[in-house]
Backbone:
């Protein structure tokens, strides 16, 4: 990820660090919908549809249920219902952006604990591996072919633009007040 320098301070028994302009605390941050929508727009997904899919994933049911196959399947179905192919693209993009954020925060934590951070390519590769695993969780999805195609299109964009996407996430987190 480069050669960012980590700064630490201890506040109220909570370790706070910063790396590459990203501040880290014992809390979890996910990209705001404005960032999800901005990147969705760059991919060609209408903003109103991206907002509806964000709502399905972040508000309805279990928040970010990508780790629970039944929830992931249900959210994929709802996303397809409201937006067809573009709904699936928004669905996968949302989860990939959230996973990037988790992994970037994880790397900042690695430096907090004096472990060598992994490279941007590692974060990209493992995020895309996770995304491909999500397809396996969609067993029984009536539109699995379209889901695979939508995921392929989104991952191709992410592979092409990952530096810009990561920078956008880090920039957004750098604006957070902890």
Residues:
């Amino acid at each position: 990820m480069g050669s960012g320098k980590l700064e630490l301070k201890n506040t109220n028994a909570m370790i706070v660090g910063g790396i590459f302009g990203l501040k880290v605390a014992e809390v979890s941050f996910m990209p705001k919908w404005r960032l999800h929508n901005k990147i969705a727009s760059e991919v060609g997904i209408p903003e109103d549809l991206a907002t509806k899919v964000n709502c399905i994933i972040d508000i309805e049911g279990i928040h970010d249920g990508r780790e629970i196959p039944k929830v992931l399947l249900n959210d994929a179905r709802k996303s397809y219902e409201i937006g067809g192919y573009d709904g699936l693209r928004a669905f996968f993009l949302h989860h990939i952006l959230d996973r990037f954020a988790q992994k970037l925060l994880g790397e900042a934590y690695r430096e907090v604990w004096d472990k060598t951070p992994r490279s941007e390519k590692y974060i990209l590769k493992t995020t895309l591996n996770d995304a491909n695993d999500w397809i396996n969780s969609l067993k029984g999805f009536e539109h699995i072919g379209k889901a695979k195609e939508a995921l392929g299109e989104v991952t191709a964009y992410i592979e092409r633009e990952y530096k810009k996407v990561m920078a956008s996430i880090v920039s957004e987190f750098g604006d957070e007040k902890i």
Q: What stands out?
A: The longest strand covers residues 14-19. Residues 1-27 have pLDDT under 50 and may be disordered. The two ends are 23 Å apart (CA to CA). The beta strands are 7-11, 14-19, 22-24.
